[in-house]
Amino acid sequence: MNIGILGNGQLARMLALAGRPLGVGCVFYADEVSPCTRNLGETVCGHFDDGESLDTLAKGTQRVTVEKEDLPVASLEALQARELLAPGLQAVAASQDRLDEKTLLRRLDIATASFWVVDSLEDLRAAMAEAGNAAILKTRRSGYDGRGQWRLDAGSDLDAVWRELAGRPALLEGMVPFDCELSIIGVRGDDGECRFWPLSENTHRDGILHISFSRPGHPLQGRAEDILRRLMEALDYVGVLALELFLVGDELLANEFAPRVHNSGHWTIEGAVTSQFENHVRAVAGLPLGDTAPRGYSAMINLLGEIPPVEALLAVPGVHLHCYDKAPKPGRKLGHVTLCADDPAALQQQLQPLYAVLGLEEGGDRS
Amino acid sequence: MNIGILGNGQLARMLALAGRPLGVGCVFYADEVSPCTRNLGETVCGHFDDGESLDTLAKGTQRVTVEKEDLPVASLEALQARELLAPGLQAVAASQDRLDEKTLLRRLDIATASFWVVDSLEDLRAAMAEAGNAAILKTRRSGYDGRGQWRLDAGSDLDAVWRELAGRPALLEGMVPFDCELSIIGVRGDDGECRFWPLSENTHRDGILHISFSRPGHPLQGRAEDILRRLMEALDYVGVLALELFLVGDELLANEFAPRVHNSGHWTIEGAVTSQFENHVRAVAGLPLGDTAPRGYSAMINLLGEIPPVEALLAVPGVHLHCYDKAPKPGRKLGHVTLCADDPAALQQQLQPLYAVLGLEEGGDRS
Q1: Which chain A residue has its CA at the smallest distance from B282's CA?
Q2: In CATH, which of 2.60.40.10, 3.30.1490.20, 1.10.260.40, 3.90.1010.10 is domain A114-174?
Q3: Number of C-alpha atoms within 13 angstroms, CB side, residue B277?
Q4: Are the Cβ atoms of B40 and A42 closer than 8 angstroms?
Q5: Superfamily of domain B180-358, CATH level 4
Q6: Pick from A91, A185, B227, B253: CA 20 to 30 A from residue A360's CA?
Q7: How much is the pTM?
Q8: Contact A17/B22, CB-based, under 8 Å?
């Protein structure tokens, strides 16, 4: 069986590595062949709105999935019409626009931060006043890893920000005084069965995920699963779905969801019986889902911009290295490392030599 | 970095899958491209004695390793002369001939079964008498998975067996009344560091490995490690080395070794912190070795001849499926499945539904 993947970055790469042992091959679709997925399957080259190339992909695969959400709706529609797309159009389309996403969450009674639609400078001024002069302006579309976001306060020059926005539709979101950022990742099979991995606790740096800890046995696990299940069922979802959450006191606020495997779930490769990548392949291929139970306690650290000397990384006891074979570039996700231990204290101890190699202080902050 | 692999079967496949996350690519060398390793790296096509094609491989890789031992010594010599081969010529050559292998083991004071060189029908008769009329005749070269072996007793027609042998050099080995078959797998780095996985306990069927259990904490672990370490140091070995052992009472007798990753170590993919495949790549690439500690208790069952319906296999809780994408053929290794649990009792319980899917009775016997 062959699955098509729209995109050929590290998520596509790790899906291919997980699919192969199951006998499921992956065919990538992108503008050009990437070193990231080279020698892991064929690449059909074409723009994401090139019907002819997409047709070639469709003819060579039994199911098509996505590794990113920023894709032309018309192309997704065409694949959906051929009953190839998993997850479906509705989920991918909703995740493309922060207003659609938040509207869907609210409709499902899932709590979110306050937000205001910003289509004009007047909207922005009014919303800032309502938000108490502390808020984040976000473009509705094409924002990821902190791009298209402005943190605003009473001293911000709203005229300047408005000019930078350059007419793009946007939302203003109230600042959430969160205790921590969590994500819940689940998978829904072709038959509607849902499974969930333990919550991840995530720390970002410059808007990009820096470190994720698995949190088996977290007191809010059940509540997070209920929220994600509601979302998966409403979307008649097939595959892995990730939902970012803010923890405020003992309340969970939904931030945004991603209709795909997610960076905060990379620890599942070694830290769970079945990884998010394998279960996404299983779901999309119509196969039974695998066990999502944790294997101990895990931490995943992104390697951004450059990969430290591999010899030094691999000398860290117990480390699992995942390079993506991508060209170095400031801020770019080039790989990640994972550590697993039997308990949180042992994990912290194991992390110390890794922090040293990465030039980080305890807790993962840059020294 | 690129590693060349002589061979393109399932061992090469799993080496490539393990190397990729480390940023180490694999180039395969074989008569023709195989579905087993297709889309996991380039294949240089040529016979194993084709100097020109081997030169192409050598030029495109920084190190060359083997996934099988039955290779022309002249070709190995040429690669060794270019300082590319790991493990080295001596180890691969010794493993090609049961007499050389046993002679080496004896020289290192490693106990083996009694054996007699058989170069004539008279040799065979004399050896049978000395062996007490219960022995196994084995060709010295090119025997694997039970091929080239005859189990002989007082009633055997030695003339007929001699004709079947057809002049091939052979050894007669005394029958060993073993309690069980074990294997110890270790890895030695470029810098001489040695690490060992827990012993595997192996059951064969029709001469082919059927099921392996990891045996963490086995009382003879230390002794087995000492034996393998002696062998690795004598050979100035680099990479993974597997040694099959007979347990007789509390004695270990060495049977044969394989200068490569080994079927009885497939459970290390999920059942150890670092798998035999990853550590072989690390050693051959000159990188630091990974932690070989077990993750719970594991069982690996080979899928021979045909792969049962994948849906049924994947519905078994906790199962890890590894298909090799090889064409079905009676007795051929087409894949394997692994289960891991926190203790042996839980493992036995987890195995029951797997035995049911595979049509096996408890303990892995065919019902």
Answers
A1: A314
A2: 3.30.1490.20
A3: 24
A4: no
A5: ATP-grasp fold, B domain (3.30.470.20)
A6: A185
A7: 0.96
A8: no
CA distances from B194 to A129, A333, B105, B244, B257 (A): 66, 34, 19, 18, 16
Are B288 and A295 in contact (CB < 8 Å)?
no
Distance from the Cα of B346 to chain A's closest Cα (Å) equals: 15
Long-range contacts of B23-31 (CB under 8 A, 24+ apart): B23/A307, B23/A310, B23/A321, B23/A323, B23/A325, B23/A335, B24/B281, B24/B285, B25/A39, B25/B1, B26/B2, B27/B2, B27/B3, B27/B57, B27/B60, B27/B61, B28/B4, B29/B4, B29/B5, B29/B53, B29/B54, B29/B57, B29/B64
Quote the DSSP letter at residue B333: E
Instruction: List, in sequence order, every residue forming a beta bridge with B51; answer none if it has no partner.
Output: none
pLDDT single digits (tens) A286-324: 999 999 999 999 999 999 999 999 999 999 999 999 999
Instruction: Check CB contact under 8 Å for A288 and B315.
Output: yes
- Tell me: pLDDT of B366 over 60: no
Tell me whether residues B314 and A22 touch, CB distance under 8 A. Answer: yes
Residue of chain B with shortest Cα separation from A342 = B295
- Specify the pLDDT at position B136: 93
Average pLDDT over all residues of chain A? 95
Contact A322, A314 (CB under 8 A): no
